[in-house]
Specification:
alpha/beta, 18 helices
């Protein structure tokens, strides 16, 4: 088979796989699962939005007249709606319930007997005060999965402290690990601790649901933002838990491999990652400096990591002679992992992002797509917009036979 024929065959295979992933008629993996969602702001709503992307029915409980705090958080669109709320609550149903009203709590009790999952991210102890202690709920409704997401978890000496993403980033070690060696600790450029806790919450819930299939029993799931962020720090933990070395900020540089960094070109930075000596030899050839591969300072990965500063200087002396786009093409053709450093406004326009439906239009607004692509199941995620406050309240009350 010729190279042209192989390329055509690969394209056809890729197109078929893409079409399968973008098929809106495929069934959802979590179809038939109902979630009672007491979450607000970001960590909890991220978890329940992922459940909605999987096809679960998510009933979001909101405060009457006010709703989730993010309804009042920007950025705002021309119609006054919050983009923050929209992103975190796609595909859900909304009912306004006063958790201090006996009639509304009677409705909640009826719902608890019929749903599969409860997700909440109140401060520990709040659910118990409302008469819905997670441990007690699982005793009363043995098939129920109750996921609690909080800053520090349901136990431990810090469990009752309030937390937001920046606090957790500061405490977890990730803020100290982020930034340049000569700069100060830097918050990661997204609400990483919130999102990580939401993802781990989703993982915990689907794991508990799978276990329920064989045991018939539900479970509590206890997710802490601090635990979730701490667990992400693989390089820092390798140093701190292994040789007991105190990690230091490295900027964009990898702690154990080089070149694994961003490098200045004529116009913008370029990320170049070389994981072995063979690739480094190819890189040296492409740069027109084959002697680098045999230089006694750079001929092994360990030496390159130790002598990263002079190697970076040697590389940038060549790379700054042309644009990042030109060097990306040359290096990519040679098989070197490489990428231009993009703004997210550029990333959203990439053909790769479009091909995998990582931006989708729902209700006239562009929103993030689902990263999980299934062969047998729907990979688009929810196609329903985020709800207006109490949009489904009357229907839900009627369904669960509660008085208005």
């Amino acid at each position: 088979m010729t190279a042209t024929a192989r390329a055509a065959k690969d394209r056809a295979k890729t197109d078929a796989r893409s079409a399968g992933h973008l098929d809106p008629e495929k069934p959802y993996p979590l179809a038939g699962i109902t979630v009672l969602d007491f979450t607000h702001v970001l960590a909890g709503p991220t978890c329940s939005r992922m459940l909605a992307d999987g096809g679960a029915r998510v009933i979001k409980v909101e405060r009457p007249g006010v709703g989730d705090d993010t309804r009042k958080m920007g950025p705002f669109l021309k119609d006054g709606s919050s983009e923050y709320y929209r992103f975190a609550n796609l595909g859900k149903q909304s009912i306004a319930i006063d958790l201090k009203e006996p009639e509304d709590m009677a409705l909640i009790k009826r719902m608890l007997g019929k749903v599969d999952v409860v997700v909440e991210n109140f401060r520990p102890g709040v659910m118990a005060k409302l008469g819905m202690d997670p441990e007690e709920l699982v005793k009363e409704f043995p098939r129920l999965v109750v996921c609690s997401i909080s800053g520090f978890g349901q136990y431990g000496p810090m469990h009752d402290q309030a937390a937001y993403d920046t606090i957790i980033q500061a405490l977890s070690g990730i803020m100290d690990a982020t930034g340049t060696p000569d700069g100060g600790p830097t918050r990661v450029g997204t609400s990483l601790s919130d999102i990580a806790a939401g993802i781990y919450g989703y993982c915990g819930i689907v794991t508990a649901l799978l276990a329920r299939e064989s045991t018939g029993m539900g479970s509590t799931v206890d997710i802490a933002m601090l635990d979730s962020t701490f667990a992400l720090l693989e390089h820092g933990l390798m140093d701190a838990l292994g040789p007991r070395v105190r990690p230091q900020r490295l900027g964009n540089r990898h702690p154990f491999m080089y070149p694994f960094d961003t490098f200045a070109c004529r116009d913008q930075p370029l990320a170049i990652t070389v994981g072995n000596d063979h690739l480094f030899g190819i890189l040296a050839e492409v740069l027109g400096k084959p002697q680098l591969a045999t230089d006694n300072r750079f001929d092994t990965n360990a030496k390159r990591s130790d002598n990263w500063a002079p190697l970076k200087q040697e590389m940038e002396a060549v790379l700054t002679g042309d644009t990042a786009a030109v060097w990306r093409e040359k290096l990519e053709q040679a098989g070197i992992p490489v990428g231009v450093v993009l703004n997210v406004d550029d990333t959203r326009r990439l053909p790769q992002i479009k091909a995998r439906a990582m931006v989708k239009n729902i209700g006239g607004y562009d929103v993030p797509g689902s990263p999980m692509k299934y062969g047998r199941y729907n990979s688009l995620g929810t196609l329903a917009p985020s709800p207006a406050l109490d949009e489904h309240g009357d229907a839900i009350r009627a369904e669960f036979q509660a008085q208005k």
